[in-house]
Specification:
The chain is an all-alpha fold. It has two domains: 6-113, no CATH class; 115-149. The protein has helices spanning 6-22, 28-43, 48-54, 61-67, 76-91, 96-111, 116-128, 133-148. α1 runs antiparallel to α2 (28-43), α1 packs across α5 (76-91) and α1 (6-22) crosses α6. The protein is elongated.
């Protein structure tokens, strides 16, 4: 879903900040990351009110000004590239939550040492072996339950 490049990188910052904003009150590492993201977005040419919107309104523009440490010389080409990615997702019918969910799942897969290609391979093998998806999901949930217990 996410193509490479600066636009996707900056778009990823917005999605991550939006996700942090949905958590409500954040502290510690999460707040530090939110502040870092605010600074990165301002460095990328977005205004404080725009960054506030990207947080889902969790942080007001004044909070962004206070928290967001930035270099002082925004790179508006990064903003333009990110807006291109925004436009692409909107034209395909994706919402912020869709992309946030994708990024979260991608991180979980990577943490387990897997990729989306691996998951696709598993699904193709299941289809070729005529294993039903409901049985595959049931087996996966049972397996995960055994690991957790």
């Amino acid at each position: 879903m996410l193509c490479g490049g600066v636009g996707a990188e900056v778009y990823g910052y917005t999605v991550e900040l939006y996700g942090l904003g949905k958590l409500g009150r954040v502290r510690g590492e999460a707040l530090s990351r939110a502040r870092q993201l605010m600074g990165l977005l301002i460095d990328s040419g977005f205004s404080c009110p725009e960054v506030s919107l990207m947080s889902g309104g969790r942080w007001e523009a004044d909070d962004v000004r206070q928290y967001g440490a930035w270099s002082g010389s925004p790179d508006f080409s990064r903003r333009d590239a990110a807006l291109g990615v925004f436009a692409e997702f909107v034209s395909k019918g994706y919402k912020f939550d869709d992309v946030a969910s994708y990024i979260e799942n991608k991180k979980k897969l990577e943490a387990s040492g897997m990729t989306y290609d691996d998951v696709n391979t598993i699904f193709r093998a299941a289809v070729m072996s005529q294993v039903s998806f409901s049985k595959l999901v049931e087996f996966s949930q049972e397996s995960l339950g055994k690991e957790d217990g």
